[in-house]
Every structure is written in structure tokens, then in C-alpha cells.
Amino acid sequence: MSDRYQRQSFLGENSQPKIERVRVGVVGLGGGGSHVVQQLAHIGFQDYVICDPQTVEDTNLNRLVGGRLKDIGQPKLAVAKRIVRGLQRKAKIKAIADRWQTRCDEFIFCDVIFGCLDSFQDRDEIETFCRRHLIIYIDIGMDVHKVENDPPRMAGQVILSAPGGPCMKCLGFITPEGMAQEAAAYGAAGHRPQVVWPNGILASSAVGVAVNAITGWTGKTPSPVYLSYDGNSGLVQVHPRLEYLLTTQCPHYPLGKAGKPILQQL
Fold first, then answer.
1. Predicted TM-score (pTM) above 0.85
2. Which of 9, 20, 52, 180 holds its CA 20 to 30 A away from the CA of 247?
């Protein structure tokens, strides 16, 4: 092991070669995704598929890790690539300046994909893709809600969706009601509140979940994982819904239906 990674040698004798062999995808390179990319590069990941069609705006700079005033108008991909290259000069980076759905072929061979997305619809689509191709999916997200005269409530989540285990529907995070409400409000939601520190907390937790899934350093089965974040109290804890999970076998994405779709003539 290189001296550079000696302080993370507790992850296991062969942990660094495992990390370096993993192909990791990051979809969404804003507040959450920029933290994820930065941490993956520090840990030593060498193979990336990163995706974001947006450019840097002035309003992104309160949370975009690595973003500078001179980056305004530049692709978010350029910021992410600069972060990785600053730490891993030989890393393979496939950068997709479009919606991830247009380049599914680049993501099929990922071992882990981080989803740093805003909508339930986007989350549902990428989780479905990951389940079909037996890819570990890790979802992060946060939001701020205002309820009457109370202070704003900041909340977030980290969910590990692993092949065969509970999916985001099983965990009650994606629901038909939530999807319907989102569709009804499409285009009218405005700018969602975002700040840098909750994204950092959630991204750190998500990267930790991924490293455990890859190296097994804790000696514990990594699935299911559903962490909730209360930004007002600063607590990250296991979501109460896990206590009421009836089964660890996912009925929505059976393992027998994995693989490329097969078209049959009727």
C-alpha cells in the first residue's frame, strides 16, 4: 500500500486495490455530488463516470465544492474533473454533459452509483436501472420545509439500494402519493433551499456506506441502510421505518428480472 493511504489501512489489507478497481458513477454534481466526488478522490478511487448537464451559476457557489467565481458559466463537470485530477492524475474519468438516461451504456459497468438528484421521478428511474443491472445505488438528498410559524425544518436521507435487498419503495421513501404530488407541482416548485453543510454531512455518510460495501471493514452486512438527517439538531440516525420493515427481500425488483430487457415477438 502506498504511504499516502497508510492512515486508512484499517479498512483491510487489500482494501486499496479493491477501491482502485471499482468503477463509480456520480449523477448530479451540485451540492451533494461535488462533496461525493471530492471524497472519492481523496480515498483513492481511480475510475469515474460523472454526469451533469448544467453549468455553474452564481447561486451555486454557496454549496458547490471546488467552485470558484471564475467557474461561473463553465460546466459543473469541469469543476468535478479538476477536483479528481488534483488528487488522482491517472484516474479514468468519463464525463457526460447530458442527462444520464442518454448514456446508459456508460453506467452499465459501474459497481456503485451515487444519485444526487432532486426529484422522486429521477430517483425512481436510476434505481430501476441499477436494479436491472445489479449495481449498488446510494441515494442522498436534503430539503428545507417551512411549517406555519415554526423555524424551518432541515431534513435529509442516505439510502443504500442493493440488488435483492429493500428498495426505496420498500422503505417508504418513494411512494405513489409522493410521485403524484411532485408531478402535479412540476414547474411550480421554484428554487429549493440548499446550503453547503448538510450536503457535506450526507455525502460523507454516503461515501462511508459505499466504502463499507466495497471493503467490508465493519464486518457488518451493509444492507439495508436508511439514514435520516435532522439538520436542526445535527443528528444522523437509523430511520425508524427500518424497525417496521416486514422483509429484506424486495418484491419490486426480483433478482430473476435482472439483465438487459429481452424483446419477444408476439
1. yes
2. 180
